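task queued by scheduler; priority normal; single chain, no ligands, no partner chains; default sampling; output format set to structure tokens
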Amino acid sequence: MTSTTNTFGTNLNYTFSESFSIDGGYNGTLVEQDPSTKDTTFSSFGLDNHSFNLNPSYSINMGKLDHRFSLPLDYFFSDMENSNSEYNSQSLSYTFSPSYSLSIQDLDLSTGINYSYSNSKADAFVTTRHSVGVHVNKTFLEKKELSVNIATNFGIDSYNNNSNNSLSVSGGVSYRLLEQHHFSLNLTYSNGSQSSYYNFRSYLSYQWSIPPLSKFLFKNKKDVH
């Protein structure tokens, strides 16, 4: 049996101005599998995957207000063939996710809203999803040692004449002590209209950042002189 896999891709990044830029890319994978003899139990197999993405973004700086708009678009296509079966499978999906974010420097506040629409088709099975999300982040204290964030997302999934609504809410608090010690507490909650249960999770974390050795070396040299 002989198997060959080829992968290739390209990326695009172009800045038209300080406010407007475009990112994009393409990736492909081609897989071929051929039996060495006609008597082998292995079959001829082929798989083609192709994905495209494009993300134009535009920002507006109004002094102490920063506005940012983005329009990401993703597309994926897959085609699979098998010589031992008359069944060939094809699937495709695309997602459109416009978003807007705002930063207010005087308030040390950032917020944003995003909408996402996705459509997936695998043979005769079709799934669509609409979702809307909002997030807010606020920092406090003189050196911004304390930060609070909250985010929520509501989605509607439709598939084969069925639908499911889902809601997720998350929030967190983090504190930085002496530039090296980081404490954080995070909470998440989610549920769905077709499930009889909900998911709640909380976790507390601590992180210690080791200072660079150069900081101690230079300090010792100063003490010697």
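post-processing summary
- The chain has two domains: 1-89, 142-225.
- The longest strand covers residues 45-61.
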